[in-house]
Write a structure and sequence with these properties.
Strand content: 15-25%
Oligomer: single chain
Number of helices: 8
Radius of gyration: 20 Å
Number of strands: 6
Order of helices and strands: HHHEEHHHEEHHEE
Shape: globular
Number of domains: 2
CATH architecture of the largest domain: 2-Layer Sandwich
Length: 216
């Protein structure tokens, strides 16, 4: 089946992303987070169901009318962008076979260098808290469905990524994950601890971020 694509502003794309994060949601839930009417949400959901991207089930709680709960179908779960995909995975596999692990790491570090330059332009002259927020925005734009949260008591941040566009690579080449973490540390000048990884079977990637100056 041809992969579905939606523009950044398309409400149907946003619904897919919310269902990716929320796992399952009803009309009221989606209406509140998207700030549009239940009727509008229902229209978009019907369209997504017709495309085979969303499925629904009736949930009955107590006496009252049952409610419909919506979730991504197996096809819908694959409707998110993958930065490299199958071709890149095969290329790295071939490179490892012919030239070894060091060659794979070298390629991934070249990619890290490109991203470091790209991210640096976006974060120029920003303070630490602003850089963390901007990193989450950039990663979200790249298809990671990312958000950042600040823990004021611990003076730290958490970066959450609900989708992993490079999971096909990360599952076979762990260097992709470790180099990605190094990228975050360099661009933020922070200590980054990884507590959850999609490539290891977790539902999300979770990073605990603390400014290096707080350790001095």
């Amino acid at each position: 089946m041809k992969s579905e694509t939606f523009s950044q502003s398309d409400p149907k794309r946003k619904i897919l992303y919310y269902l990716k994060v929320m796992k399952q949601a009803g009309l009221n839930d989606l209406s509140k987070v998207m700030k549009i009417s239940r009727m509008a949400v229902h229209k978009h959901l019907s369209n997504l169901q017709d495309r085979g991207l969303v499925e629904s089930v009736e949930i009955r709680k107590g006496v009252g009318r049952p409610t419909m709960q919506y979730s991504l179908s197996s096809t819908g779960k694959t409707a998110f962008p993958r930065s490299y995909g199958e071709i890149a995975t095969h290329a790295l596999d071939y490179l490892e076979k012919k030239m070894g692990k060091d060659a794979v790491e070298s390629v991934l570090r070249e990619r890290q260098k490109e991203l470091l330059e790209k991210y640096s332009v976006r974060m120029k002259d920003m303070k630490f808290n602003e850089r963390v927020k901007e990193l989450a925005r950039i990663r979200d734009e790249e298809g990671y469905i990312a958000e950042s949260k600040k823990d004021r008591k611990r003076n730290s941040h958490t970066l959450l990524e609900y989708n992993c566009p490079i999971i096909m690579i990360a599952e076979k080449h762990w260097e992709a994950c470790s180099i990605e973490t190094e990228l975050f540390e360099h661009i933020l000048d922070a200590n980054v601890e990884v507590t959850h990884r999609a490539a290891k079977g977790d539902s999300i990637c979770k990073f605990l971020i603390k400014e290096k100056s707080d350790f001095l």
